[in-house]
Hints:
alpha/beta; Rossmann fold; Pdz3 Domain; 2 domains; eight-stranded mixed beta sheet; 16 helices; 15 strands; about 20% strand
Amino acid sequence: MKNFPGKTIKTILIILSKSLALFLMAGILSTWSWSQEGSGDQALTLPLGPRELRGKFIRVESGKLYSARKGKPVSFEFMVKEMKKARLIHLGETHDDLEMHDMQFRVIEALYRQDPRLAIGLEQVTVDLQPILDRWVAGELDEDSFLREIKWYVTWNFNYGYYKKIFDFAREHQLPIFALNAPRNLITKVRMQGYGALTDEEKGVIPPLDLGQEEHRLLVRTIFESEEIPPQMKGPGLDSMFEALYRAQVAWDVTMGRNAVRAAEATGRRVVVLAGSGHLLYGLGLNFRAYLLSGLPQVTVIGVQTPEGTSLKVSRGLGDFIYGVRTRDYPAYPAASISLKKVEGLNNLVVAARPSEPLARASGLDKGDVILSVAGKEVFEVNDFRLVLAGFSWGEEIKIKVLRNGEVVIHNLKLDPSLLKEKKN
Length: 425
C-alpha cells in the first residue's frame, strides 16, 4: 500500500480494485495525508500506542522534532543517539513529500556515521526484484538502466527524485538494500479471494494473516471511514469492502515486517525501513509484526504535515519521534496521471481512459489516443512513458504526439501547478 500525513486523506484513496470504488479506497494507509483542517485528525488522536501515552497529546509545529516519551521538542542529535540500540528503525513517509525523504536521508547518513553496519529496507520494491537492487549496490547498473530494469515507474510510480540521494548513498557506501514488499498480484489475490486462495509457494512470500488485532482494526477502520465515502460504496457491502481492504493491509504489514527481520538477522546490521506512515502508526503495523516475530528493539519516526504558523494536536502514541513537516501547495515533482494500456497487435501505447487528474485533463488527451511520441521520443512501454515525464519540472511543457481518428494531433501537457488548485478545491 502506498503512503502518509499532510493535506487530506484524499491523496491516498488509490489501490484496491474489485470495482472503481474499491480502486479508490486502495492505498488508504500508505499515502495518507492530513492537515489540521482535514478529516484525518481523528486518526491522529486515537487512544492507541503505548499504554502510558494514551490520552496524552502534543502540539506539533512544522520544523520541530518531538520525543513522544518526553512530550516535548528535542534535537535531531538526541533522536539519533536514542536510536543507537535499535536494530530496526522505521521511518514513515508521505511518498510525495520531499521534506520527509530529506529527513530519511539525514537519519541514514547520521546512523552510518554512528555505525556503518547499516542496511536499508524498502516498501517501494517487491521481493521478486531483489537481484536488481543487488546489482545497483554492486555498481553494475547506471541510474537509467536501474530505473528501466526495476520498472520503477510501474512498480512504484513516485518520482525517483524523492529517493535518489538514498539510493546513491547506499551504493557509495555499499549498504545492502532489501526489497520488503509482496508482489502486487499476490496482494490483490489476498484481497479479492482471501489468504486461503494462495498456493503453497505464494504463502512462502506472504506469511499467515492474523486479522484479530482489534487496535489495528480500529485504526484502519477510522482511516477507512474518515474520508467521505462515494455513494456507490455505501450500503450492505461496506463491511465486506473493509474486510477486503484490511486483509490487504495486514498482508502488506506481515510480509514487510518479516522481511525486515530477515534482513537484520541475515546481515547482523541495523536496518532502516522506509515505508508509508500508514504501515507504522501507533506501532501497530509492520513494526508491530516485526516485533512479534523477533523482539528486536526498534524505533519509529512519523512525519506529520502541518500548516506553517499553526500547530496540530496529535497523540503521543503515534510514534517514538514525531516531526512537523511544512504543508505545501503542490509536491516537489509534478505527476500527471495518464492511464495507459497495450493493445494486441499494436506496439504503441494507448490512452486507456479520459484523464480526470487536472494536469493530464488540461492537455486534451482522450481515451483511445495512440501515443506516437513524448517530448520527441518514441515510447512503447508504460515505464518508459513515465520515465520521460519524470524528467520534467514545474513550469515546463511536454509535447505528446498522438494518433486520433486517423489524424496526427499534438497535445501540450503543461506542468502548471496552478492547475492543481481545481483539484485542491
